[in-house]
Design goal:
Strand order of the largest sheet: 1-2
Shape: flat
Oligomer: single chain
Radius of gyration: 15 Å
Helix content: 25-40%
Largest sheet: 2 strands, parallel
Mean pLDDT: 75
Order of helices and strands: HEHEH
Distance between the termini: 26 Å
Structural class: mainly alpha
Length: 88
């Protein structure tokens, strides 16, 4: 059975504020209460657009993956995510 999403995790108006919290304090209070970790880390937010698009505008708190073409995206994601846990 499909899960119903009646409200997004964040309203668009809340997104900018949440990204500032992450950048400034690594505050993880927005995570569900079931999230537990002895050393919490901020979420990994990747900007998967190519470098041309990234140079035009950036997502606050996002890390670019430095690709030139879409074809390179999956290899770069595999490389970046190989040592990351799924809960980040």
């Amino acid at each position: 059975m499909a899960r119903s999403c009646r409200r997004p995790m964040f309203l668009l108006s809340e997104w900018h504020v949440k990204m500032q919290e992450i950048e400034q304090t690594s505050n993880l209070s927005f995570l569900p209460s079931s999230h537990s970790s002895s050393t919490p880390r901020p979420p990994l937010l990747l900007d998967i657009r190519n470098m041309y698009e990234y140079e035009i505008g950036r997502f606050q708190a996002a890390t670019p993956i430095h690709t030139s073409t879409f074809k390179e995206t999956w290899k770069m994601l595999d490389d970046i995510l190989q040592n990351e846990t799924r809960d980040r």
